[in-house]
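Lab manual, section 2.4: Encoding a predicted structure.

Procedure: take the sequence of the chain (281 residues), apply the prediction step described in section 2.3, and record the output as C-alpha cells. A sample record is shown.
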Amino acid sequence: MDTLEEAVENIKSVKVQGAKEIAIYSLKFLRKFCKKNGFKLKFEVAAKVLEEARPTAVVLHNCLEILKKNRKLSTIDSLLKRLNAVTKNIGANGSKLIKDNCKIMMYCHSSEALSIMKVARKRGKKFSIITTITEPLEQGIKTSKELAQMKIPVTLIEDSATGYFMKNVDLAMIGTDAIRKEGIVNKIGTSLLASAAKQNKKPLYVVGNMLKLDKRKKFEIEERSGVEIFHLPKMLLPMASGLKGIKIRNPAFDTTPWKFITAVITEKGILKPKQVLRLLK
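Recorded output:
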C-alpha cells in the first residue's frame, strides 16, 4: 500500500491523470487507509490532502462529499462501482455520434472519450482520428498510442496546427475535468481548439460523467511548475542563461464557454448545454 505522501505524489506528478482516474485511485487508497485508521480525524486529513493534490478536478471532491455523509467502506465500494460503470454507458451513448468514414479531432487524454472510440470500433464503424501532442506533458501521445492499439487510423499533430486541420474533420471530441456554469474546464489549450471548431462550423462534443458537475463556489485553475514548459539537461544549461529575469507560468487547465459546445456526452445520455446548466443550478 502506498503511503499518503506517495499517493499524493503520484497524483501531483500526473502518474495518475484524468479526473475520474484520480478519483478511482484516491478511493482505492482511502479504502485501505480507512480500513486501518477509520473515518475520523485521520480520514479527514487524508481526504483533504488528496483533494488538494489536483484541485481543479472535481470528481474526487464530489465523491468525498458523498463519503463524508455516509462514512462506510460500502460507500467507497458503491462509488467505485459507479465510476467503473459510467465509462461503459458513456461509450455506448457517444458511439451513436460516430458515423462511417468520419474524421474526428481529439485533444489531450480522456479514458471516457476513448471508450466511445472503442465501442464504435467494436461495432464495425470505420473512422479516423487526428490527435494533438498536447503540451507540455504530451498526453496526446498516450491517446495516439491507445488508438493505434485499437487499430484506429490516427494522425498526431502539433497543438499549434489545430486550426489548420480543423477544416478537414467532421467533429471534435474532448474530455473534461469539471463541468461548471461558466463552461467546461479541460486541459489548457482546449478553448483554442473550441474556437477553431466554431470558426470552421464543426460540432464540439464534451465527454464527462455526471460526477464532473461542479457546483463549488471556490474554484481555482491549477498552475504547475514552469519546468514542464522549459527544461534542459545539465549539459545544455548554459543555453538557459538568457531566461534570467523571465517568469514562466503554466496553468494546467482553461475554461471553454458554453457557446462553443454542441453537447455533453454523459452516462445519462447526450445533453444539450441548456440541459446541463439546469443541473448546475
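Check your result against the sample. Residues 57 and 177 are 5 Å apart (CA to CA).
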